[in-house]
Amino acid sequence: MSGALVSLQDVDKRFEGGTQALAGVSLTIAPGEFVTLLGPSGCGKSTVLRLVAGLERASAGRVDAPALRGGTAETAFVFQEATLMPWARVADNVWLPLRLAGQSRAQAQVRIDHALATVGLSDFAQAYPSQLSGGMKMRVSIARALVTQPTLLLMDEPFAALDEITRQKLNADLLAAREAQGFATLFVTHSVYEAVYLSQRVLVMGARPGRIVAELAIAAPYPRDAAFRRSSAFNEACAALSSALEAAHA
Prior knowledge:
Strand order of the largest sheet: 5-6-7-3-8-9
Largest sheet: 6 strands, mixed
Oligomer: single chain
Shape: globular
Number of domains: 1
Mean pLDDT: 92
Strand content: 15-25%
Radius of gyration: 18 Å
Number of strands: 9
Distance between the termini: 30 Å
CATH superfamily: P-loop containing nucleotide triphosphate hydrolases
């Protein structure tokens, strides 16, 4: 794909010990595009993210992504666990990547404040992680990613442990942040409903060794709201994606 931000071509990944996680995976992500990987546990979704982030190397094939072109600062990663520093206040947790890049607190303050406002945590800048709910901790983790103003956001099941109401709210907040900042997103989830609500394209992966077995385009325009979840287009996309996921399990 010409002009792709991320491109994987016939990628295999075999770990030491012989386990083959991926076989012949090919995908592209355009600048600003929201793409979701959906599939059964152990199919290699997280491995794809780690390859794109430069945290793993492919055993075969070609991976092209900002982190591998010297643009590590252009890529932000949000993990399933919030992984906050428990001894540091919320604002200091968000400052961390800018601090590591050499920015003083004074230099970073405007971006810290903006990132916290984006996730609705301006009033909790001086709180400690132990004082936050699970959903609020994940908001801090997202703010810490957004404060770097990434070109590409990688998210590995970030909302899996949250209740449905909190999850839906964070889904909406994520799309609002993407609309404002224009970053591309590669998102991993087990939820058909979440994949349809968030994505422009959903790539369904088959069981190990992981491979792309289906692709579904979600044509609904952004911004998307609660009404989209009740629409016939949403229900039809969920049904089609569920069928593709069942086939992947089989």
